[in-house]
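Course exercise 7: structure representation. Students receive a sequence record and must write out the corresponding structure in C-alpha cell form. The form below is the worked example handed out in class, using ParA family protein (255 residues). Read each field label carefully; the graders check that inputs and outputs are placed in the correct fields and that the protein name is recorded exactly as given.

STUDENT ID: A-19
EXERCISE PROTEIN: ParA family protein
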Amino acid sequence: MNTKKKPLFIAFSSQKGGVGKSTFTALVASTLHYRLGYNVVVFDTDFPQHSLTKMKVRDLAMVMENEHLKKLAYNQFMAINKKAYEIVQHKADSVLERAIEYINTSAIPIDVVFFDLPGTVNTPGILKALAGMHHIFTPITADRLVMESTLIFTQLLQDVIMKKVETSIKTINLFWNEVDGRERTPLYDVYNQLIAQLGLSLMQSQVKNSTRFRKESENDSKTIFRSTLIPPDERLMKACQLDLFITEFLKIIQL
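STUDENT ANSWER:
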C-alpha cells in the first residue's frame, strides 16, 4: 500500500434523499478502514441531519450494551491496532480547507477522505466542495423521481463543473442500489439506455435490495452490517452483492 500518494477525496452524492448516500459512506469507509488496512476520515457536512455523526453515537452505545459486539470490537482493535476512523462535522463551504488541514496535521497518513455532503445544490459551498472531489459515486433506484433528479444533477456536474470550473473530479459513477433480484423490470433497460445515451458512467455491479441498509444492529445481534465501528459482515455483504461493488469501487479509484 503506497501511503505516499495524496489522499483521495470521495463523495457518495445525490440530489435525492433516501437513496443511501450516508449508508454507503459508512459501509465503504468501514470496509476500507477496518478490513482493508487503509486509513480513513469522514467529514459530515450534511446539515442539519448529520446522519453519520449520530450513527457513530448509536454505534458506540450499541457496542457497550451488546457483549458479543463488545468482544468483536475489542478483538478487531487488537488485530489491526488502530482506532475507529474519525467523523468530523463541518460546513460544506469550507470543508475542503478543513480536510487539507486535517491531513497535514494528522499523526497517521490518511489514504481516503469521505465527504457526506448535503443533498441540494442550493447549500452554500456545495458546488465548490463537489468540484474538489476526485471521485463521486451516485446511488440510483428505478424510480422516476429519483432518476430525473439524479440525471439532472449528474449532467450539471459533467457539463458545468467539470467543463467550466477548475475541478479535481476524475470520475462520476452512477450505480444501481436497492435492486430487487426477484423482479426484472423494463425500467432498468430503459434507464440503462438513457444513461448510455447521455454519456454518463454506470457501474456494472448492482447492489441488491436489503432491509439491512435501513436496519442497524439490535441489542442481541451477533452480526454487523451498517456500522461506523466495525466492517459489514462478509456473508451479509455477499448476500446483497456489496462485495462486488467494493471490488469495482477499488478498481475505479485505483487506491
